[in-house]
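Human: I wish I could look at a protein chain and see how it folds. This is the protein in question:
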Amino acid sequence: MTRGREERWAAGRTAAPHPARPALHVVLLAALLLGGCGIYTFSGSIPGGMKTIAVPPFENQTAEFGLVEDLTDELIDRFIKDGTLKVKDLRDAESALYGTIVRVDDVPFTIRPDESVEEYKVTITVVIRFEDLVHGKVLWEERMSQFGVYPFSGGSSAQREEGLQEADKKLTDDILNKTVSGW
């Protein structure tokens, strides 16, 4: 007696699985899951394969003395330590990072129970522009701010300098990350 199409189909669905199928499924699943691991990276990629950057001294629109040198030097040091882009002179670089310090503010941060100031927060605000010098185009431009906190005990300039250095470091970290990882 011949079985009908429906019976043959039903018989095939209830039959024991082929012994090679589970192994094939495991291999396919592993290939799908692990296949993308070699492609993804946590490091940034710079557009156009740029390898060099210039960091000319920032402009300063504030009355803060010495901040331009501190911020520019800290940023250059961060790029050198990072190594993604090699720091070069402006005439030899493929890209440039221009900055303008537009504002520095000190405001009370922590108040004591007697309503006197215990700590101040100093905020540095800059406008940063990253340019592709080879193609003559602006890759990004952004206003960035960061702050540092310093204790207020008689208004020591050394303590304020520590707050400025903290803000400086945070700001240069943000600029570096935006430049090398923002893509």
